[in-house]
Amino acid sequence: MKNQTVEKLWNVMICLGLGGLVLLFSVLFSMFLWAAQGNNSHNCSVIEIFAMCFFSLFASFVMLRLSESLKLFSFDLKFFSKKNGRILFLCTLLMLTLLFAEIVLMNQHLISDKTMNPLAAQVFTNVPPLIMVLFSFVFAPIMEEVVFRGGIIGLVFNDHLLLGVCMSSLIYCLLVRPENIFDWLLCFATNAVLGISYAKTKRLEVPIIIKMIAVLFIALSI
C-alpha cells in the first residue's frame, strides 16, 4: 500500500512537471513570436521563421521523447493494429460529428463564436503560414495530448481509466472556461472522445492523430 501511494504521488509530480514544461514551451513560443514581429514591423524574417519552426519541432520532439521514456508513446507504427485502427476511425468520426454540431450551434447563436481573444489575435497577427501550420497541427496537439491524455490518464489515473477520462476532460474545461452549458458539454465531450481513444488503445498516437484531423476539419470549415 505504501509503495502504491509513493508511486501515485510520483506520477502526479511527473504529470505536473509535464504541464510545467508545456507551459514553458508555450510561453517561449509566444515570446519569440512577439519579439520577431516587434523587431521587423510585424513581419518575420526568414531566419526568424526558421528559428520558430525549429523550436516548435524541437519542443514537440522533446515532449514525445519524454512520453516514450514514460511508456506513453513509441516512435513506431505498431500501434496501428486492426483494433486500434477501428477505435481511431470511430473516435475520429465521433469527434467530427461533435465539431459539426458545434458549428451548427454557433450558427444558431447558441454558443459563442470560437474567435481568438484580443491578446491571442494580436500575437498571431500576420504570422507566416508555415508557423501557423506547425503550431496548429504539430505543436499544440502534441503538447495538449501529452499532458491531458498521457499525464492525467496514463500516469495519474492509470488504474482508473474511466475516472481519468472524466478528470482530464473536466480539468481541460476548467482551464479554457466555456461560457455556457452548451460550450461546457461540447468541450467535455470532445475531450472525453480523446480520452476514450487513449484509454482503449493505451497509445498516445491515437488521440494526437484525432486532434490533428480535428484541427484540419476546423481549418477547412473557416
Automatic annotation (TrEMBL):
GO terms for molecular function: endopeptidase activity. Residues 128-214 form the CAAX prenyl protease 2/Lysostaphin resistance protein A-like domain. GO terms for biological process: CAAX-box protein maturation. The chain crosses the membrane at residues 12-34, 46-66, 87-107, 119-140, 152-175, 181-199, 204-221. InterPro entries: Rce1/LyrA-like_dom. Pfam families: Rce1-like. Keywords: Membrane, Transmembrane, Transmembrane helix. Belongs to the UPF0177 family. This is CAAX prenyl protease 2/Lysostaphin resistance protein A-like domain-containing protein. The lineage of its organism: Bacteria, Bacillati, Bacillota, Bacilli, Lactobacillales.
